[in-house]
């Protein structure tokens, strides 16, 4: 969230070279909407630093971010005993991308942790040439930015069941139960 605000948030703070003022509302017409999306968060489990704060705490720290996509006040996805395997992250990123296809915006930036971005690219890079897929799916360096154009070439209609934030969150919980069994 700090990275998103630092790069895309409050223009007046950025103009002054101050990216520490996360409590300010974005200013100007060029500031995009910033959304916190539960599905696109860091790897889940075991490490306390990967457990998210209460939504109300995040809203107080980052009032310019839309937290309506969060699955409740407390972190119901984090498990202190099980570290989320890459297969589950990839499955979660499929759900995230299904939701993302329902968005009306044409230009979307995803700001997340390297493992999350890497799994998104692995999921999407399956039909790319091997050289392209290898380059895209390399581990991210700290603070690395990559520009990628993603095109949905499938003939399918977007699953309307995944349009609602609550439906997407419910689907994630069902997926976790299926993988656990």
TrEMBL record:
Segments of this protein annotated with the region Disordered: 1-24
GO cellular component: cytoplasm
Top-level taxonomic group: Eukaryota
Organism this protein belongs to: Gossypium mustelinum
Signal peptide range in chain numbering: none
UniProt-recorded name of the protein: Uncharacterized protein
GO molecular function, a single term: phosphatase activity
SUPFAM superfamilies recorded: Phosphoglycerate mutase-like
């Amino acid at each position: 969230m700090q990275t998103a605000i630092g790069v895309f948030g409050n223009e007046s703070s950025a103009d002054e070279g101050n990216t520490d003022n996360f409590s300010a509302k974005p200013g100007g017409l060029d500031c995009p909407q910033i959304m916190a999306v539960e599905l696109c968060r860091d790897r889940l489990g075991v490490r306390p630093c990967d457990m998210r704060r209460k939504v109300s705490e995040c809203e107080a720290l980052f009032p310019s971010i839309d937290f309506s996509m969060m699955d409740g006040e407390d972190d119901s996805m984090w498990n202190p005993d099980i570290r989320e395997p890459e297969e589950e992250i990839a499955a979660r990123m499929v759900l995230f991308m299904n939701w993302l296809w329902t968005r009306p915006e044409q230009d979307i930036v995803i700001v997340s942790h390297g493992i999350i971005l890497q799994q998104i690219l692995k999921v999407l890079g399956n039909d790319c040439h091997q050289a392209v897929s290898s380059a895209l799916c390399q581990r991210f360096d700290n603070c690395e930015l990559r520009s990628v154009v993603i095109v949905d070439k499938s003939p399918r209609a977007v699953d309307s069941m995944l349009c609602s934030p609550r439906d997407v969150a419910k689907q994630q919980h069902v997926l976790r139960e299926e993988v656990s069994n």
